[in-house]
Amino acid sequence: MTPAALPPLTPAPALPAETEYTLTPADFERIRRLIYERAGISLHAGKQAMVYSRLSRRLRETRHGSFASYLDRLERGGSESEWQEFVNCLTTNLTAFFREEHHFHALVDDLRALAGRSGGRPPRLWCNAASTGEEPYSLAMTVVETLGVSAPAQLLCTDIDTKVLAKAQRGVYPTDARGLSPERLKRHFLRGTGSNAGSIRVKPELARLVEFRPFNLMSTSWSTLGEPFDVVFCRNVMIYFDGPTQRRVLERIHGVTRPGALLYVGHSENFNDSRDIFRLRGKTIYERV
């Protein structure tokens, strides 16, 4: 899935003169092109400061004296691990437990309906922006609270950023993590003691419901995701894509879901232009056509 050409930039304010490195317009345009090709992310001119802040750390770690030098190395034989570091630097990971809570209330009803009509087949869910794990474990908690701890549900959680996935797999969070009620803290988490005081860890019975795996939505290997899904959480992902890329991703999601499958999206995302493949069913919830 190769993204279309990027739209041209409008001029943006220059970075402060006292910065350690110089991010030239040509450097920024190369970065825009490379992250678009690799991850489908469309950066606008207002992101220059963010790009500088995140990538300058990578320049220090790799001992490059300029963005041009680093990008030259990346484009002329950069290792897959360095490409992954480049992508990790430029992805945004804003998340919390039970964020956009109305989705989880709706999911309770959807899980009950799926359990009633699946004929014993485990419902299959996909969270494709797992980040540091708060959303995947919110889904797992909802599954357990709705269908029981031994519910035969399958929950695949993916992200393009390998660093946040590693944190998600550890399942360790501060005790004051946003979005968790005292009841859920007690039921689904273990409290740390001693040197781990102030932390909580996801209980094993919850963690085993979740499979974490790296996945790039720009990949052409969607068949590796396995059996079709009944529910897909793709929230606050498409806001980083341009229109043509959004459409291609929606078509791919359509291809890996069952008829009538549900697509949960972010509060600011609207796909009414793609109603031929997903029709709006409720508040930021779409149904596969």
Q: Brief description of this entry?
A:
By secondary structure, the protein is α/β, with parallel strands linked by helices. It has helices spanning 25-39, 48-62, 67-75, 80-90, 102-117, 134-147, 162-170, 182-188, 204-207, 243-255; strands at residues 124-127, 154-159, 172-174, 189-191, 199-202, 210-214, 229-234, 257-265, 278-282, 285-288. Helix 5 packs across helix 6.
Please explain how this structure is put together.
- With 289 residues, the protein is of the alpha/beta class.
- It has two domains: 25-90, Orthogonal Bundle (Chemotaxis Receptor Methyltransferase Cher, domain 1); 102-288, Vaccinia Virus protein VP39 (Rossmann fold, 3-Layer(aba) Sandwich), CATH 3.40.50.
- Helices cover 39% and strands 17% of the residues.
- The protein has helices at residues 25-39, 48-62, 67-75, 80-90, 102-117, 134-147, 162-170, 182-188, 204-207, 243-255; strands at residues 124-127, 154-159, 172-174, 189-191, 199-202, 210-214, 229-234, 257-265, 278-282, 285-288.
- A seven-stranded mixed sheet has the order 6-2-1-7-8-10-9, sandwiched between helices.
